[in-house]
């Protein structure tokens, strides 16, 4: 029996595999091929070789095989080999599009099977993600802590082993509210707009107040669709601290700024 038969062999899960036993001798010896625990003779003989064809290799095909050559005088030679199954990466859990609140924690899940074992690499907006105290890689999962708006983006989980690679993408939306400060100078009798420009998902509700008094829409106060506050015919009484409050079901935020009203310039 050829010495090559005794070398351990690797078969890929789900793929075609051929186990071949070559023998030498004249006339050609009788060749038998069996799997340990299975009595039946496997494969077909062509010339001085017996070949066992497996269309789709499974775990049941893995194990120890014995090839035996018997010449016309009854002398025998045997050799054994081990066939191990390995596998390309296969998905168990792919990352999913996720919406999470600002300052919260979330996990993008990524699990795959494979043999030899698989390795995971995460990317954010096309750049390799560097782990930190806020970005933790745990058995394929990406744990993001104390979310910031800058954490939002497109994430990719890349899974590899020696036989292949898998890639899956998911979008992380960091939701909540934020409002920049609204501080401005204005002249008496002018029109001024105090900027709030809230952002968030779901779209936040906006309320304005001066000091502790909430403002209502009227002849001089106009609430713009952008969330800004427009004040017409400004007077000195409009000076003071204005607060923009924004909220949705995921949280709330506020920013306060001061409006300074100055008298008209004299010519």
TrEMBL record:
The keyword Nucleus does not apply. It holds the Pfam family Ig_3. Its main location: membrane. SMART domains: IG, IGc2. Residues 1-83, 89-173, 180-260 form the Ig-like domain. It is found in: Cell membrane. The keyword Acyltransferase does not apply. One of its GO terms (cellular component) is plasma membrane. PANTHER family: FIBRONECTIN TYPE-III DOMAIN-CONTAINING PROTEIN (PTHR13817:SF73), TITIN (PTHR13817). This is Ig-like domain-containing protein. It comes from Nematostella vectensis (Starlet sea anemone). The lineage of its organism: Eukaryota, Metazoa, Cnidaria, Anthozoa, Hexacorallia.
